[in-house]
Design goal:
371 residues, alpha+beta, Lipocalin, 11 helices, elongated, membrane, DoxX family protein, transmembrane helix, transmembrane
């Protein structure tokens, strides 16, 4: 057994331990006391700094009684494990009791998706499925329990680390704030520290363990390596082919969202102020993949199709073979409608005039670009 450890090793251990303690204090104070922001910083930073003073005692103790050093290291690793378990299992129980991964507030749910901040978009996504939330909660609860025992600690780390790294990415890229990001970083770094402390067991398990099945010989290592390379290249190749084909339906100059400024059907002006009529066309979308969507006063009343556009002749044709169902998705229609039209005026994409036919009806539209 190793009886002495380097000063950097001791400092890292104590820093991780202090950060783990501060994460626990932050969790409890935020959930129960809700103190002022300055107090939160104070109670968070003190546990982060104070354990560093212990490094001098540890160093002196190691010189006087080297056999005590492994016990000191085991103690601080235990502190890290228990603090991580407490913090992570708390997040698990919050999901069980509906304090996380729940539907967003009604006032937020009514805001259009395109106008919401990233954090609420994230909560929309994770709050949709209660079952998914329970799966994540189960991983956090079970993994935290495994952290509390030396024999199962490595298994607990393997369960929790992918979950926590994913949460770090969510907190950072969806801008959930410095508090959640700090918590997730501390928990992830703590798990990584514990994982690296099991380095020799990991090497033994992943790199040195013998296969239980015999090796298949296929003409030597060169052929095997060629097959391995083919797996990677072929997967890249067919995905690139799919990507290349999708580029054929690139964004046209019509791309955008347009409000219907004026509408004539069979040369008869239609009042757009009669909003109660479901049949009034009020918005047109020229979307990705040359999709054309006609909206009739609600996202629940839409026709969906794809259009072909000739930018030289300013003509396009769109076939509408899907319609929105009551929940806002698209379902195949019993019949199809075809819109054939010409752009009679194109004002740098800000306002366009369209004249054409949809079925037997003639249409004249003036569209104002919204975005």
């Amino acid at each position: 057994m190793k009886l002495s450890y380097s000063i950097p090793h001791k400092i890292v251990t104590l820093l991780i331990a202090g950060a783990s303690i501060s994460a626990v204090i932050m969790m409890v104070t935020l959930n129960l006391l809700r103190p002022a922001e300055r107090i939160i910083y104070l109670v968070t930073l003190l546990p982060l700094v104070l354990p560093l003073g212990y490094v001098f005692f540890w160093q002196r103790s190691e010189k006087q009684q080297p056999e005590r050093s492994p016990r000191i290291l085991a103690f601080w690793r235990g502190v890290i494990s228990y603090c991580l378990a407490f913090d992570i299992v708390s997040f698990g129980w919050k999901k069980v009791f509906g304090l996380q991964f729940r539907p967003v507030p009604l006032s937020i749910a009514d805001i259009p998706t395109g106008e919401q901040v990233p954090s609420w978009l994230m909560w929309h996504f994770y709050g949709y499925s209660h079952t998914f939330g329970m799966i994540v909660a189960s991983a956090q609860i079970i993994g935290s329990f495994l952290l509390l025992f030396r024999r199962t600690r490595l298994l607990g780390i393997m369960v929790l680390l992918p979950v926590m790294i994913n949460i770090v990415c969510i907190n950072y890229f969806y801008r959930l704030g410095i508090g959640p990001l700090y918590q997730s970083l501390v928990l992830s770094l703590g798990l990584m520290y514990l994982l690296l402390s099991e380095y020799h067991r990991l090497v033994l398990f992943f790199l040195s363990a013998q296969e239980s099945l015999p090796t298949i010989h296929l003409g030597g290592s060169k052929l095997k390596n060629a097959i391995r390379l083919c797996v990677m290249v072929l997967a890249f190749g067919y995905i690139y082919l799919f990507y290349w084909r999708s580029q054929a339906a690139h964004e046209s100059e019509l791309y955008g969202v347009y409000d219907v400024k004026s509408l004539q059907i069979n040369h008869q002006p239609t009042s757009l102020k009669v909003l109660a009529q479901d049949s009034i066309l009020n918005r047109v979308y020229f979307d990705d993949g040359n999709a054309c969507i006609l909206q009739f006063n609600s996202h629940k009343r839409r026709l969906f199709g794809h259009y072909d556009y000739d930018s030289q002749r300013k003509t396009f044709k769109s076939i509408f073979n899907f319609a929105s169902d009551p929940v806002g998705d698209y379902m195949p229609r019993g019949k199809t409608d075809t819109l054939q039209a010409i752009i009679t005026r194109f004002d740098s994409g800000k306002e366009i005039s369209i004249a054409g036919y949809m079925g037997r009806d003639s249409l004249q539209l003036v569209l104002q670009k919204v975005r």
